[in-house]
Specification:
Distance between the termini: 5 Å
Number of strands: 10
Strand order of the largest sheet: 1-2-3-4-5-6-7-8
CATH topology: TIM Barrel
Largest sheet: 8 strands, parallel, barrel
Radius of gyration: 16 Å
Number of domains: 1
Helix content: 10-25%
Oligomer: single chain
Number of helices: 5
CATH class: Alpha Beta
Amino acid sequence: MINRYSVKICGITDEINFSELKKYQIDYFGFIFYEKSPRFILNNPDHAFIKNIKNKVAVFVDENIDTVVSILEKYNFSYVQLHGNESSNYCMKLKSEGIKIVKSYLINSHDDLMNIKMHKETADYFLFDYKSNNYGGSGKTFDWEILNDKFFDKPFFLSGGLSLDNLSNINMIKDNEMLYGLDLNSKFEKSPGIKDIEKIDKLFNLDL
């Protein structure tokens, strides 16, 4: 069943849409604080609803750390996903504030994976996404078998183009004990930032 993995729905922008999503057993709700993203939560003037959500993740890309801390405090975030080239020191400063760190890595080949310098000491979770010219929501998938080429000592999220059509192939990742969660975005949308509830419903009926 899908519930053997944690489910993270990322890129939510609308309160009514969120109200429909929270009926499902979703473990994390992701909100994007990256201005170049079509899912930038602050583009919605009615974004105050995110403050009272408990299990939420704030997503940033190479943002000024003082801005990050300010947003985390303002909206009561305890999880942050760092999707850029943030350093170990950057992560450690956030960790010292009691923040849980999801560190993203963009990969598209065996060499990409082997060349990553992972934040083993500062990250609580890794996240592996498709390497494209833009950050997040590309709808494209890398070859998941690449992940079998490296041992991970941290639980990780799988991201990048996950869909109802390809999640059945998740068993190609042999190190399933470290595969902690599924990060779902563009393939579960009607439009950028608006999640497709019908697809979400089907997701929770998948036999993985």
